[in-house]
Write a structure and sequence with these properties.
mainly alpha
Length: 504
């Protein structure tokens, strides 16, 4: 096998994952700036962060069918253009609606890149390397997340609107990605299945794995093509023979997001501030989250083709359940103390003076505190108190919160993060893969949007204890689902997996 060539083109394609990760995480550092600049409520903030997922849904819907028609490579080039436009336009936005439009454009790029990059890599990778190479996409996603956290930390103290620099810097890797994609060949499977260009595909496959690999792969593709007289439709996707595949796909897509991962990535500094950290410390802790994510994604790449997909999912979801339970316990044991020292931390002097009469009081829950201060503050002050000042009154085991979040991210990084996308690229037959990935990706984005939209509201109205308890329950359910329904695909060709899963 020509490993270096295969790894190189896979890595280039997976750079779309870097942009996806960067775009997803960079907003975490800009939350404070955009909330202040555009004067957002909790719901407006949730939408400004989550609207990118609306764009991702559009990308999910159209990317698969368009990549079937025009090829994987052309769609990936288009995503690079979208990322560039979004970065520049969102950084220059002066109106809320303009900012939202720019974010949605970036979301379309995310929705397309997160689906098409794994498909392309799965279609060019030899079976023994496929899990690791497809996981390169997840590696680049977490690398993008880590770089975004570093970037936010170093840009946060710039004079003026630092959030503009945080968002605009994404244009640099987007332009690099656009140019690098012209080095990548077209998918050999797509060339044979859609254009019947066997000689062209053979040339590419020889570069990937040698002459014998090329002949064997072409025979498998043609044999599979002969079974498929036409491209699958949406109605065909939901036929009973695909029921096992759909159960696995929709189950993994649901649990990957409902366990709260994007809430953690999008709002990492906010969570650590809720645990009583300063702004600087919260940004630094977010960097640690990104690095843990990166390190354990490397672990997943090493283990996914050795240990297998299902064992990683079981280990990961079990550990996520433990970690989220730890976070729940930490916030449940927290108290809110109005003493002289904490009062002095409150930056808004009107709020400080208004609640001074409560000095010496301690509250067991966030809701109890809100009930106590509600009669003392007007509506704008209460909103400011809930969003920005409550962090100054909390007494909590912040170390336990940090350890819980790091353990959770590490567990996700070896399991639901990379394994879901690897399995989605493997389990669907070639003739319905495009539309199937689009439908499941759309569902995944819809769940992600729901989590992201509600998270600021949950923190304010339900409190962090209930919020993390919900995620812990979902993680436990994901463990049960994986154990009962998910199969192992390690070491099997795409055609073998198809024969295993389709119910004739």
């Amino acid at each position: 096998m020509q490993k270096s060539y295969t790894i190189t083109i896979s890595f280039i394609v997976a750079l779309g994952g870097f942009l996806l990760g960067f775009d997803s995480a960079v907003i975490s550092g800009a939350v404070g700036g955009i909330r202040s600049y555009f004067e957002m409520s909790d719901w407006e903030l949730g939408f400004s962060v989550g609207c990118v997922i609306f764009g991702a849904m559009i990308g999910n819907i159209f990317a698969g069918p368009l990549s079937d028609k025009y090829g994987r490579k052309k769609i990936l080039i288009f995503t690079a253009i979208l990322f560039t436009i979004s970065a520049i336009w969102s950084a220059l936005a002066t109106e809320y609606y303009i900012f939202i439009i720019a974010r949605i454009i970036g979301g379309i790029g995310i929705g397309a890149a997160i689906l098409i990059a794994p498909i392309y890599i799965a279609e060019i990778a030899p079976p023994k390397l496929r899990g690791s190479l497809v996981s390169l996409n997840q590696l680049n996603i977490v690398l993008g997340i880590s770089v975004a956290y570093f970037s936010n930390y170093y840009l946060k103290d710039l004079d003026g609107d630092s959030w503009r620099w945080m968002l605009g810097v994404e244009a640099i890797p987007a332009i690099i990605y656009f140019n690098a994609l012209f080095v990548v060949p077209k998918s050999p499977r797509w060339l044979i299945q859609k254009l019947n260009k066997i000689s062209h595909a053979e040339t590419i496959l020889i570069k990937i794995g040698g002459k014998d690999f090329a002949i064997e792969t072409i025979e498998e593709i043609i044999k599979g093509k002969d079974k498929k007289t036409k491209t699958g439709t949406l109605s065909e996707l939901f036929k009973s023979k695909f029921s096992k595949i759909l159960l696995i796909a929709f189950g993994l897509a649901f649990f990957q997001q409902i366990t709260g991962i994007n809430a953690i990535f999008y709002y990492a500094p906010t969570i650590f501030e809720q645990a009583g950290g300063s702004s600087d410390a919260s940004f630094l802790q977010a960097i640690v989250v990104g690095l843990i994510n990166l390190v354990f994604t490397f672990v997943a790449i090493v283990l996914i083709d050795r240990l297998g997909r299902k064992p990683l999912l079981i280990i990961g979801t079990a550990t996520m359940t433990v970690a989220l339970t730890m976070a729940t316990i930490a916030f449940n044991n927290a108290t809110y103390d109005i003493n002289q020292n904490n009062l002095q931390k409150i930056q808004n002097t009107e709020i400080q003076n208004a609640i001074a009469s409560l000095e010496g009081s301690q509250y067991a829950t966030q809701n109890d505190l809100f009930k106590a201060v509600d009669p003392l503050l007007n509506i704008p002050q209460l909103k400011e108190f809930k969003q920005n000042e409550i962090k100054n009154l909390i007494t909590i085991n912040a170390t336990l919160v940090l350890l819980a979040i790091l353990l959770y991210v590490a567990a996700f990084a070896i399991s639901l993060g990379p394994v879901m996308w690897t399995m989605l690229s493997e389990i669907f037959p070639g003739n319905i893969k495009g539309i199937a990935i689009s439908v499941v990706g759309f569902f995944n984005s819809l769940v992600s949007y729901t989590v992201t939209q509600f998270f600021p509201w949950e923190l304010t109205n339900l409190g962090p204890t209930v919020t993390f308890a919900i995620y812990a329950i979902m993680a436990l359910l994901s463990l049960i689902f994986v154990y009962k329904y998910v199969i192992e695909t390690k070491g099997k060709s795409l055609e073998e997996i198809e024969n295993l899963l389709i119910q004739n």
